[in-house]
Amino acid sequence: MKWKGRRGSRNIEDRRRMGGGKAQLGGVGLLAVVVIGYFLGVDVTPLLQGGGGLGGEGGGEITQADEQEAEFVSVTLADTEEVWAELFRNQVGEVYDPVTLVLYKGVTQSPCGGASGATGPFYCPGDRKVYLDTAFFTTMARQLGASGDFAAAYVVAHEVAHHVQNELGVLGQANAIRAQVSEAESNDISVRIELQADCYSGIWAREAQARFGTLERGDIAEAMNAARQIGDDTLQRNAGRVPMPHTFTHGTSAQRQDWFLRGYESGDMRSCDTFSARQL
Questions:
Q1: What is the domain partition of the chain in residue ranges?
Q2: Pairing assessment for the beta strands 23-24 and 53-54 based on DSSP bridges
Q3: In angstroms, how far is the first alpha carbon of the chain from the final one?
Q4: 8 A C-beta contact, residue 227 and residue 260
Q5: What confidence tens digit (pLDDT) does each residue in 94-112 have?
Q6: How far apart are CA 133 and CA 117, in angstroms?
Q7: Lower CB density within 10 Å: C or N end of the chain?
Q8: Confidence band, pLDDT 50/70/90 cuts, at residue 264
Q9: Helix, strand, coil abundance in the chain, percent, nearest 5
Q10: Global pTM value
Q11: Beta bridge partners of 108
């Protein structure tokens, strides 16, 4: 992916040098820690002691690698801003309000609960921000087998896609329904939310190449590999468990790859309507 020396985004909230303290986890945040820790093989026991507080200091020394990753995220975010501004104008007939991305190191807080390396990147509708510790890119490469700069860009684009869903009103409606149905039905809706975000990520990849010529040989393969490695069935299998479809919340590896490709090949937001799809 060609990104060095290109324009970065101004919508970055850098908390990497902020002092830490205790980031308290609510129910959703606590669940995220347990689930991500379970799938990634992270020992979350220390994080769950003390009544749900997430101990440890945020901030710390910012290395050269940290700065390069932050620059990479900023450029990727800037690309999403331009792409989605045009897509909203041409396909939705509305103005796109860009998301703010919070960079942190260690731990931080959000209206959706505490954020740490154990929770992984996430979008919080409460403040309409994406939270990302760039150390997660190392986790992707070393623990998940999803290396490469475009694999990391796919993760950023996926979280931005949740903001796109929020802008369109889809995310709020889906989550409202999830709160009123059974756990199995809620999980099914969650899968459809995530697969639509994968599809939107594919659209972003297509448009980024068309507008900026940033893709290099092997980049789409990196994104497809990342989608495969973070499929629910693959994560559960790699954790030594038998895949249990009724517990899936993000979709299988095949589904995530398929919906990413749908977006990439079509470039049309209408092709990403996972909620009307009879078969995912």
A1: 12-272
A2: antiparallel
A3: 29
A4: yes
A5: 999 999 999 998 889 999 9
A6: 6
A7: C
A8: very high
A9: 55, 10, 35
A10: 0.85
A11: 115
